[in-house]
Amino acid sequence: MISFGKYKDILKDSTMMAILVIVVGLSSAQAAEFTQCNQSFYGGIYPEFTNNKLSAKTQPLCMDGFAVMYSGVSRTPLWSAEHLTRKRLQQAKDIDREDSFHEESRVPKSARASLSDYSGSGYDRGHLAPNADMATRSQQYDSFSLANIAPQSPRNNRYIWRNIESATRYLTQQYGEVYTVTGVAFTNKKTKQLAGRVLVPSHFFKAVYIPATDQAGVYYAPNDESERIEIISVDELTAKTGIDVLPALDIQTKTQALELPLKAGESTDIPSDASNDEPTWLLFVWAILEWLVAQLQA
C-alpha cells in the first residue's frame, strides 16, 4: 500500500512530467510551424521565451515576408521577425501604401483582436513588421493583419517609431542585410485594455542584428507620448521582457549594445572598415527619398 506522502511525491512528479510534456509539445508545434518561414530568423532559430508564462495561448504564424508569435492573452503579437535585404527594400519602394487592416482568420475568434477594439481608443494600430518593409502586395496585405498590430501611442508611432524603422532600412542599405525582431513588453503592474479585450503594451522594442559586423542593439521605448527611447543590449532586453529575441547570437554579441542610429543617415559606432558596398552619396539620396515618402504618407 502506497503511503500518503509517497502518493504526493508521485502526484507531484506526474504533474511536473505533464507540464514538461505540454511545454515540449508546444515548442515542437511552434518549431514545425516556423520551418515554413525560418528564413525570417537569424540562423533559422526563432526567439525563445525565458519567462514561460508568456507562452500561454501563443500561436506561431508564418506570414508572407515575416513571422509572428501571437498571444491570445494580450490579443497582440509578442514579436514579429524579418530578414531585410537591399533587394527586398528596393522592391518595397515600388509599392504604394494600401491600408487593409483586417482580422487574422487563422486565430480562433475567442483569441482574435477585432477592428472594433481599436475604434475610438486613442491608440494607433501600430505595425510590428512595418508596411514599408514589404516587397509585394501579398506581404503588404499580411502586414495589416491584426496579428501584426498592437495598440501604440500616436506620437510614439508617428515620430519615434517611424524614425527607427527608417534608420533600420538605412542600415540594411548600408550593410546589405539586417535581421530584426520587433515586439512589445508588458511591464506595468496594471495593464490598460482596449474594449476590455486587447492589452496595451507598456513598451515597444526593435532588436537589430547586422551580420556584416556581428553587432546587435535594441531600440526600447515606453508606449507613451514622451518620445523617450533607450538603446540597450539583447541581454538587457531579455532581462526586461522574458524573451531571447536572437538566440543564435554568441554571448559577447548579446551583451554589447550597438549604438544604433535614431534617424536614417546618423553614424553609429560600427567600425569604419566594415563592409559598405554603397557610395556615401547614394545613401544620402536614399535617406532623402525615405523622408519625402514619409511626408507624403503623413
Which key terms come to mind for this protein?
seven-stranded antiparallel sheet; single chain; 298 residues; 22% strand; Extracellular Endonuclease, Chain A; globular; 8 helices; alpha+beta; His-Me_finger_sf; two-stranded antiparallel sheet
How far apart are the first and last residues' alpha carbons, in Å?
A: 75 Å
CATH class: Alpha Beta
Percent strand: 15-25%
Radius of gyration: 20 Å
Model description:
The chain is 34% helix and 22% strand. It is of the alpha+beta class and 298 residues long. The chain has one domain (38-297): Extracellular Endonuclease, subunit A (Extracellular Endonuclease, Chain A, 3-Layer(aba) Sandwich). The longest helix has 31 residues, at 4-34. The radius of gyration is 20 Å and the shape is globular. The protein starts with a helix and ends with a helix.
Give the structure's gist in a few sentences.
The chain has helices spanning 4-34, 86-92, 115-118, 137-143, 154-175, 234-241, 251-255, 280-297; strands spanning 48-49, 58-63, 66-71, 76-85, 124-127, 149-152, 177-185, 193-194, 198-199, 203-210, 215-222, 230-232, 243-244. By secondary structure, it is of the alpha+beta class.
Q: What does the secondary structure layout of this molecule look like, with pairings?
A:
Blueprint: H1 4-34, E1 48-49, E2 58-63, E3 66-71, E4 76-85, H2 86-92, H3 115-118, E5 124-127, H4 137-143, E6 149-152, H5 154-175, E7 177-185, E8 193-194, E9 198-199, E10 203-210, E11 215-222, E12 230-232, H6 234-241, E13 243-244, H7 251-255, H8 280-297
Helix pairs in contact: 5-8
